[in-house]
Amino acid sequence: MTGGFVFSEKPIQIESGEGAYLYGEDGTEYLDFGASYAVASLGHSHPAVTEAIQEQAAKLTYVQASYPVDVRTELYEKLATLAPGDADNVWLCNSGTEANEAAMKFARSATGRSKIVATKRGFHGRTLGALAMTWKDKYKEPFEPLAGGVEFVPYGDEEALADAVDEETAALFLEPIQGEGGIHPASAEYLRHAREVTEEAGAALVFDEIQTGVGRTGDLWACEGVGVEPDILTSAKGIANGLPLGTTLVKDWIAEDPGDHGSTFSGGPVVCAAANATLDTVVEEDVPGHAAAVGEYLRSELEAAVDEHDLPVREVRGVGLMIGIQVKRGANRVLKNLALSEQILALPAGRTVVRLLPPLVIDERHADQFVDSLVEVLQ
Ligand SMILES: *Cc1c(COP(=O)(O)O)cnc(C)c1O
């Protein structure tokens, strides 16, 4: 019998990584413009994170979450300080989907209601609760029945939101910028409206910042950029720069009655050490500010290249270093050519969007390298 992964792998074998680059077994250098699903936010194997992991692993690799340890307490305090508004009560878990499961459970428990409102094209994860709030049928159909009581509204439609969020609603789940659904930023007015209708109905406003968070959009959290405070904020992906961590930050009124929830690996010391090092670096080096500046440069260079070379691109959109390039023909062919001919790795978002989520530490040279390669591939 030959062992293998259930799902297909790409024909590129990676052995090591440093900064914005991954290296193949044969020494080939790949520019990782997906940051491996936005996880390598500070670049691959960032030295400060590696050192924190090594030190903590040698000291204490794991202890059950009911015994306080300094490294976890430090992370609780850091997240409370960095949380938007007063969503400063912290739940730690091991992935994005689990952070959303917790958000769903906490909101139901705190409100005593069950209905959830989510958005068309939205993505919240693959476990049966988060999957129920995810839009795409392809992800859901083989696994039904999912958690019930989810109503979907078109993203960006204020009226539909006002109609759907009612006295039976426990929570409204929103990505401030839809990621997997094709890089669609919400307007500030829409997010403000979401704040108003949830407040009026007594429902929790949940921002899923699993992809947008930790500096990617030019602010630490995308909701800060538009000045809207959620009741619950979920994060994961880049928050521990490669180790599995999900966080659910909640306001007091949710934390007062969260029900009973738990996870054996919640807040393991090594993961907490990696997150502390990541967050310290993000804050001390103003990584969000850097992402805003380089993102602006990359977007304008992309737009200029599309015009100059008359490239088959319908639109370039996004905020900070979360950028979607909507191409006229299939995105997968573009991605394959970028990888195999130009040694640049990026991600799809649906059939026609090339999604860029590069490490937040890239500079203008990396941006130029990407734009030149894209021109090569699309011409
Ligand atoms: C990736 C993602 C998730 C799921 O996170 P996992 O760690 O893969 O479970 C949820 N929501 C958004 C917006 C995401 O981008």
UniProtKB/TrEMBL annotation:
Its cofactor is pyridoxal 5'-phosphate. Pyridoxal 5'-phosphate binds at residues 96-97, 123, 208-211, 264. The modification N6-(pyridoxal phosphate)lysine is found at residue 237. GO terms for cellular component: cytoplasm. The keyword Transferase applies. Its main location: cytoplasm. The keyword Nucleotide-binding does not apply. Its EC number is 2.6.1.118, 2.6.1.124. It holds the Pfam family Aminotran_3. InterPro entries: AcOrn/SuccOrn_fam (IPR004636), Aminotrans_3 (IPR005814), Aminotrans_3_PPA_site (IPR049704), Class-III_PLP-dep_AT (IPR050103), LysJ (IPR037537), PyrdxlP-dep_Trfase (IPR015424), PyrdxlP-dep_Trfase_major (IPR015421), PyrdxlP-dep_Trfase_small (IPR015422). It catalyses: [amino-group carrier protein]-C-terminal-gamma-(L-lysyl)-L-glutamate + 2-oxoglutarate = [amino-group carrier protein]-C-terminal-N-(1-carboxy-5-oxopentan-1-yl)-L-glutamine + L-glutamate; [amino-group carrier protein]-C-terminal-gamma-(L-ornithyl)-L-glutamate + 2-oxoglutarate = [amino-group carrier protein]-C-terminal-gamma-(L-glutamyl-5-semialdehyde)-L-glutamate + L-glutamate. One of its GO terms (molecular function) is transaminase activity. It is found in: Cytoplasm. Keywords: Amino-acid biosynthesis, Aminotransferase, Arginine biosynthesis, Cytoplasm, Lysine biosynthesis, Pyridoxal phosphate, Transferase. Substrate binds at residues 126, 263. One of its GO terms (biological process) is lysine biosynthetic process via aminoadipic acid. Binds 1 pyridoxal phosphate per subunit. CDD domains: OAT_like. Involved in both the arginine and lysine biosynthetic pathways. Homodimer. Belongs to the class-III pyridoxal-phosphate-dependent aminotransferase family. LysJ subfamily. PANTHER family: ACETYLORNITHINE AMINOTRANSFERASE, MITOCHONDRIAL, AMINOTRANSFERASE CLASS III. This is Putative [LysW]-aminoadipate semialdehyde/glutamate semialdehyde transaminase. The lineage of its organism: Archaea, Methanobacteriati, Methanobacteriota, Stenosarchaea group, Halobacteria.
